[in-house]
Amino acid sequence: MESKTSTTKKALKGTVLSNKMDKTAVVAVTRFVKHPKYKKYFKITKKFKAHDADNSANVGDTVSIIETRPISKDKHFAIVK
Fold this sequence. Notes:
mainly beta, CATH 2.40.50.140
């Protein structure tokens, strides 16, 4: 008996910060979080390295990235246009 687990992959939107690497872009994803005690919202920005197969992303572009299998040591997202 096989048990299939349905995995949902993370899909995030962010801005391209750097495209100087070959087939890789650094994407900054910003989200608003509510502080548990003080109830104030603040911004958290996290950077992800994403696979860009045809080097089409430019700095400042808004892109959506999706989680994939590990491509390198710290690259486990791919750019979806």
